[in-house]
Amino acid sequence: MDMEKYTIEYIRELQSSMKEYTVVLLKLTPKRNEAESQGIIFQHAQKNFALREEGVVSIVCPVFNHPHFGGLYIFNTDFDQTKQIIEEDPAVKAGIFQYEIYSGKSFPGDSLAK
């Protein structure tokens, strides 16, 4: 790995191109294990697919087999817009998920490896 090319000037130039995003962490509640939550979880998934298609969210990353952590989003909206969207999520409204929201920055065009 060639670390020499990552000069302070290079890093500052790249940092100037960073865009603001909003990161949401979903936390599971005990309601997640209730039988009636399955239909609501499906509605939550439908909402996720719509948000992706609309370009509102870039990353939807469910986490499986963890007792408390349910997933991660990276939204293309500001903090307040993201909060409004998350609070309208069927699973959040039903108390199946709780959430934490953080402002962050990343480089436009970053993506998951194919």
What keywords describe this structure?
114 residues, alpha+beta, Alpha-Beta Plaits, four-stranded antiparallel β-sheet, 4 helices, 29% strand, elongated
Structure description:
With 114 residues, the chain is α+β, with helices and mostly antiparallel strands. It has a domain at 20-59 and 74-106: 2-Layer Sandwich (Alpha-Beta Plaits). 34% of the residues lie in helices and 29% in strands. The chain has four helices and four strands. It has helices spanning 8-15, 37-54, 79-87, 90-93; strands at residues 19-28, 57-62, 69-75, 97-106. Strands 2-3-1-4 form a four-stranded antiparallel beta sheet. The chain starts with 7 loop residues before the first helix and ends in an 8-residue tail after the last strand.
Structural class by sheet pairing and helices = alpha+beta
- Low-pLDDT parts are none
Amount of beta strand = 25-35%
Largest sheet at a glance? 4 strands, antiparallel
Topology, pairings included?
Layout lengths: L7 H8 L3 E10 L8 H18 L2 E6 L6 E7 L3 H9 L2 H4 L3 E10 L8
Antiparallel strand pairs: 1-3, 1-4, 2-3
Summarize the structure.
34% of the residues lie in helices and 29% in strands. With 114 residues, it is α+β, with helices and mostly antiparallel strands.
